[in-house]
Predict the structure.
Amino acid sequence: MVRVLLAILVFLGIWAAAGGYGIGLPLTDEQVARYEALPIVRPSGAGLPEGEGDAATGFEIYAFDCAGCHGPNGEGAPFDRLVADAPFSLGLPPHRFAVGNYWPYATTLWDYINRAMPFASPHNMDPDEVYALVAYLLAENGIIDADTVVNAENLPRIQMPTRPLYRVDPFTRQLFPWIELP
């Protein structure tokens, strides 16, 4: 047992002296600044920038930037479905999950699109384009009217259909009894 422990300690010492695995490249200051500049958007809407968008503008953006991956009507193919064709239920297979029947906060949708989409060139849309795309997806899912203009003020107030189904899991509740979902 002592030999095994000693061998592990020697290995860890050599590994630490070598600087870890030695793979990857360090981030440049410019790369770090670019990612630190992204706002952290909370369910309350904190972090949302100024701007606004409507579903009609969002449709044009979707057709150009999103339909190739998510299908012409958000039905999914080859990537995830965005428009729900069924309400959420415990027996719903994961390939049927979509923005309208799975996501708990509309602000999360804004944040995800802003950070990660379009897939080929993420974080390449201005806030107005992201708001328009969110408006389009929420309208297609029947969550808002097609003529609703989405902005930092009203986006956090949009009630997602599955929001009441989300709960803090029992283990987390045991460790952090003060946590409440917004």
Q: What stands out?
A: The longest strand covers residues 52-53. Residues 2-17 form the longest helix (16 residues). The mean pLDDT is 87. DSSP finds eight helices and two strands in the chain.
